[in-house]
Amino acid sequence: MPKREAESSDEAVQSKKAKTSDDSQVAIQLQKDDEGSYYVDLGSMKRATVSQFKGKANLNIREYYTDKPSGQLRPGKKGITLKVTQWETLLSVTNSLTEKLKEVDSGTSSKVVEKKEAKKEKPKAKKSDGKMPAKKRKKAESSEEDEDE
């Protein structure tokens, strides 16, 4: 895989190709953050970052926010950290997951169809028959008793 020269000493950039829905090729850039970890920008303030914690490599998929005082991007609470073995497991089933995602997205999955039908069959809430709910009725009755005394 060819590497491009980094624009600065902090950013090493490596190009990879990814397929999009229209089968055109889009370059995905592997970038390096201030801490020396490599990441891919996933858009919508999300990143996939390869980092090390206690000597073990991890893949972090996380939302980021802009720190107001410094203006820097910081990792947020929302996200997941995968160990190398978990990442390998996920990679081994990517074709199956991609297939199922397409089915669900197009609405052809049988479970999705069943859920849609179940929602249609839900009984509708009964319309009010003009009676007061029990809680309000008790409150009204107790206030009437107070007035009688």
From TrEMBL:
Name under which the protein is recorded: Transcriptional coactivator p15 (PC4) C-terminal domain-containing protein
Domain Transcriptional coactivator p15 (PC4) C-terminal, first and last residues per copy: 41-92
Biased composition (Basic and acidic residues): 112-132
Span list, region Disordered: 1-26, 101-149
Assigned keywords, A-Z: DNA-binding, Nucleus, Transcription, Transcription regulation
Family, per entry: Belongs to the transcriptional coactivator PC4 family.
Keyword presence, Chloroplast: no
Location relative to the cell: Nucleus
Gene Ontology, cellular component aspect: nucleus
Organism: Sphaerobolus stellatus (strain SS14)
Gene Ontology molecular function terms on file: DNA binding; transcription coactivator activity
Gene3D superfamilies, alphabetized: Transcriptional Coactivator Pc4, Chain A (2.30.31.10)
Keyword hit for Transcription: yes
GO biological process terms held by the UniProt record: positive regulation of transcription initiation by RNA polymerase II
